[in-house]
Design a protein that fits this description.
The protein has about 350 residues and is an alpha+beta fold. Helices cover about 40% and strands about 15% of the residues. Helix 1 packs antiparallel against helix 2, helix 5 crosses helix 9 and helix 6 crosses helix 7. The longest helix has about 35 residues. The protein binds dinuclear copper ion. Dinuclear copper ion binds next to loops.
């Protein structure tokens, strides 16, 4: 800092140190303002979200000005103190600057330590156990999410939550690593084979948001999306009651479980297209002409169309339709579905794709 810059000999005016610091400060103020004006996040729909957003803003305020200042000084120095044409002299010898070195070690150390403590406090706060938590089991599988309310004994392919009640998620996977993410809750946790990860959130806004898989998990990763609906308390209770009395009950007017409900509840719709169920997945074969395809492929495998469809659900590795990736469809449906459910699903698929059901 102390030595005389050569440029002064070339007739430049003003002190270069003061000049580059003032340019740096002005640039830092402009870029930080732009950064803070930017809308970084989607809707904020959970209690912890505003704390996380604030943390993020503090990180931006702490890092953007320093980054811009350092880069401005670096770029300025390269330009201002460049070697002029014909100038082959060595630069002035420098033996370091103890005061400057103490400052640039101490200030970042205190800054990073302060941010780490702040981050730890926020994390501790949003992970704290809450009274009256709703327990929800989340299960990832290629390529859908399923949800279970163990205390209420309800399973669902759609995540329903009551507003303003703390939720404790326990997250598992049936196959590979997925990542359970609801952007509006600022909530993300990996689903890792063999362990259960946990996360807490209190939704505070009624609405429909997206559950996204944030870990590349295979060919259908991009389609691994479900919905989370946050409902007023009463509507949520009514929904729970309906689920309890629904598929498992079997009594009353309903009779056999509907094939369409089984199709969507088990995530078939995230990989297959089927107009009747409003499904548009394109990982596996389209099912709108399943009856014809089942007759054709079944014949080659000496199976009836029904046997073929059943085998495709229970033992999908036995045969893969040409042109589609092998070993992608989960092999767990034979275990997860009852015999009646599989029968209903087979009948349903053949019926809505132009064949004869039962
Ligand atoms: Cu599951 Cu990506």
């Amino acid at each position: 800092m102390a030595e005389t810059p050569r440029s002064d000999e070339n007739g430049h005016e003003g002190h270069p140190f003061a000049q580059m610091i003032s340019i740096g400060v002005v640039a830092a103020i402009i870029v930080t303002t732009i950064t803070l004006l930017m809308d970084w996040f989607p809707t904020n729909a959970a209690g912890a979200a505003s704390k996380i957003d604030t943390l993020y803003d503090v990180l931006l305020i702490a890092s953007v000005p320093i980054f811009v200042l350092v880069m401005t000084v670096a770029v300025y120095s390269v330009w201002r103190f460049r070697a002029r044409p014909g100038d082959t002299r060595d630069g002035a010898p420098i033996h370091g600057n103890t005061r400057l070195e103490i400052i640039w070690v101490t200030v970042p150390f205190m800054l990073v330590t302060g941010l780490a403590i702040y981050g730890w406090v926020v994390l501790n706060d949003i992970e704290a156990k809450q009274p009256n938590e709703l327990q929800v089991k989340v299960t990832g599988q290629q390529f859908t999410w399923s949800f279970e309310y163990p205390k209420e004994k309800v399973k669902s392919s759609q995540l329903m939550l009551p507003v303003d009640r703390p939720v404790h998620f326990r997250i598992n996977t049936k196959d590979v690593v997925h990542s359970f993410w609801v952007p509006q809750f600022r909530l993300k946790s990996d689903a890792v084979p063999g362990i259960t990860t946990r996360i807490r959130v209190t939704p505070d806004k009624v609405g429909t948001f997206e559950v996204v898989c944030a870990e590349l998990c295979g060919i259908g990763h991009a389609t691994m999306r479900n919905r989370v609906r946050v409902l007023p308390r009463r509507q949520f209770d009514a929904w729970l009651a309906r689920q309890k009395g629904g598929p498992a009950g079997g009594g009353g007017g309903g009779g056999a479980p509907g094939g369409k409900a089984i199709f969507t509840a088990n995530g078939c719709d995230s990989c297959h297209t089927l107009a009747d169920a409003g499904a548009t997945g394109n990982v596996g074969p389209k099912l709108d002409d399943l009856a014809t395809a089942a007759a054709k492929f079944g014949k080659a495998r000496r199976e009836s169309a029904k046997e073929y469809v059943r085998e495709s659900i229970v033992d999908p590795r036995a045969f893969t339709v040409p042109g589609y990736p092998k070993n992608v469809m989960p092999t767990t449906f034979g275990k997860d579905l009852s015999k009646e459910q599989i029968d209903a699903l087979v009948d349903y698929l053949l019926r809505v794709s132009g064949g004869k059901g039962s």
